Amino acid sequence: MWLAAVLGNDRVDRMTSDTGYPAIGQARDLTLQGDERWYVAHTLPRREISAQLHLGAQGFRHFLPTRLTTVRHARKLRAVYAPLFPRYLFIILDLGRDRWRSINGTSGVAGLVMAQDRPLAAPCGLVEALTSFSDAASASSSLEDLRPGQKVRLIAGPFADALGVLDRLDDAGRVGVLLDIMGGGIRVKLARTWIEPAA
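The chain above was modelled as a monomer; its predicted structure follows.
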């Protein structure tokens, strides 16, 4: 991957280890203009990151919807963001303006989803709904909406759906939660993305 060649493998690993997907891979201005539409690219297996980075380097705006999931590795659990639709990502194109055929030769991309000899547009409103959901989830994950002493619910990890009380916050995005399990209080330290305010 060219990113590893530029930054070094250890830095790429650090960028992807906490979230699963580096923030630099996601284009931010996702507003359609003129004749632009959303199209779907099929990626190679487990190559969504590579596809995002190479498409962005070519100037294509794209969006990879992700979801928070818990993975176990070496007897440890951690929350990572995984693709909502594995092997698919969305790209903004104006077929009359953009050189869309170059996408099929992009590293990490198997090809555009086609209808006969033209790329097939995603249903109107689908990607906009996914991006607004993603923006809402990002907003809800800020530390500003939580206060020590507040009741919270775990949404990931081995204690998913357990209730607790927020004990402390730190600037690194970690939280301390006092869980009420089997009649006793257990203090755990978690990633901020693992909790939400309890209703």
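The chain has a mean pLDDT of 78.
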